[in-house]
Write a structure and sequence with these properties.
Two copies of one chain form a homodimer. Chain A is of the alpha/beta class. The first copy, chain A, has twelve helices and 20 strands. Chain A has a nine-stranded mixed sheet with strand order 11-10-9-8-14-6-15-20-19, with helices on both faces. A five-stranded mixed sheet of chain A has the order 2-1-3-4-5, sandwiched between helices. Chain A is elongated, with a radius of gyration of 23 Å. β18 of chain A pairs antiparallel with β16 of chain B, so a sheet runs across the interface.
Chain lengths: 358, 358
Amino acid sequence: MTRDEKIMRWCIELALKGAGYVSPNPLVGCVIVKNGKIISEGYHQKFGGYHAERNAINSALNRNINLKGSSLYVNLEPCAHYGKTPPCADFIIANKISKVIIGTKDPYQLVSGNGIRKLKRAGINVKTGILENECRSLNKFFFKYVTTGLPYVILKTAMTIDGKIADKKYRSKWISSVESRRIVHGLRTSYDAVLVGKNTVKHDNPLLTARLVKGRNPFRIVIDSKLSLSLRKNIFSDGFANRTIVLISKNADKGKIKVLEKRNVKIIFCKSQGKIIDIRDALKSIAKRGITSIMVEGGAKTYSEFMEHNLTDEYMIFISPKVMGNGIDAFNQRLDMRKYKNINYFKTGQDILINIKK
Amino acid sequence: MTRDEKIMRWCIELALKGAGYVSPNPLVGCVIVKNGKIISEGYHQKFGGYHAERNAINSALNRNINLKGSSLYVNLEPCAHYGKTPPCADFIIANKISKVIIGTKDPYQLVSGNGIRKLKRAGINVKTGILENECRSLNKFFFKYVTTGLPYVILKTAMTIDGKIADKKYRSKWISSVESRRIVHGLRTSYDAVLVGKNTVKHDNPLLTARLVKGRNPFRIVIDSKLSLSLRKNIFSDGFANRTIVLISKNADKGKIKVLEKRNVKIIFCKSQGKIIDIRDALKSIAKRGITSIMVEGGAKTYSEFMEHNLTDEYMIFISPKVMGNGIDAFNQRLDMRKYKNINYFKTGQDILINIKK
């Protein structure tokens, strides 16, 4: 690993501190080096707050450090446009930084290449593509979101060895080990939202919060075309109902809509074919609300919808060393994942975790 | 690891050279040490041949080495009875060996403790229980066989992530990777027999040989109560029909029996309830023929029979990163394996191997 790569890795570490709080913005970390020494660092902490570059530069300025001739490392191309804050490229130029080392270009159309061009025109030495894969992976949510207008989707399921997610009576609780559940709760703190079908809420009445780890709770999205679920279900009635989003069609029960609106539950009207919500359209509406990443947590019908419409970017499958015999199958769609780039296996307690990325 | 354990490990390595060739005898390796140096070694090479101790002692005697005062290491208690060869304990005593270090006692009733007693009465210093677990594991087939009169049973299956072993048309070939299949073929060289149900032969027409690795082929056992399979199937008509065993009931087709007998296919008449062979009774008959280990390779009905009657000692489940959607379920019996002692996971090519031992 070169020195540039080592410092870029540190940028990634810093960036990750913002995970769960910056969406729909990207995760960005920044390190400034002068005379071979790290003199300042910063990261994008919160949506609407300063960008990483500005935080790192300000931190140095606050300590009366002159940045002239220094090198700035950042995992994503600095912005060149006025958004919630003024452009970082201008601030870098104004502070006479002489070299900028970048992980990946910003795919966002208002930035893409413009930040780099602006820096170069100002005579700054710009180097790009340092740990490019890692930097892209760090911002997989953001890249998917800005290039497609859809959120990044991970499909998570916990099943028995024989591929069952519940018994015939839809009892599914605690199929997976506490270690596996802790991983899922950890993911809930970094994904913008979790999504489940109506039947999962009906049978399991889940909280869908991140209880087993520290961190913020995700939005909870439920597909319920006709709004037939009882409004006493946890996601509608616990203290976080304002973090619940319901995807409904125009056939939904009007009275229930009113009740949910009073509770600050967010309602999204979606296109539908008969009773079936158009899931791609729904994801677009969700993305427009600034949700860049979704963890789909079930059940079988919902998994099938996502697989059928090829809307899944990643799979996270926990397998518990049990055989259910008869029960509810997780999947009813055929899919050959051997062609996918990344197939990895991990032991999580007594379970095995299969992680597959496109 | 102590010096005794290191030498015992070498005994185990030597013993394994006999794997696939000594059944129904145990795997045994022997090392003789004098003045701190290994001076001779031997192992049980073949059923009916000399035991490991005799091979090691003879090897020393052939080189005119006097064994007086030496230490003999062996993974299994030396025999004290006349079997196919004279008792090893007597031979050890006659050669004035002064110390015997043993891995595990022999559970076989004609030996159990008698070998050790005989050695002790002759004034030999006997130490037992060195790497006992490893030595027991080495001879898991033999221990099961002599203590229960049943063969050791491993249930092997290759499935998709969603627990399917074939599609709805029973097409199942190449669900697993070549690496996984090589492991299975390797197991076929060390298990005495592989066993399948009638439907597997009907749909897959497998060879059940060890093609992908060096080593001997196992016996091929098929359950076919009425003998309804075509006699053109590979296991009845390839060059190894004398290594095929058919489990039938008294309802079996008499004409076909005669044809198979002419081809030297082995026929075992089993108890049955209606058309269903009593699988425990069948295993006893198989064991009486000196078969101490069986790998059950399918299909779903056969797996269920073994699971229902609790006849499985170990599971080897290969999971391929594919989703079948609709297909044939591997299992229809409920089984919680979390209580089992050994649950391990391995990556085999693109597949994951789950290995579970009771």
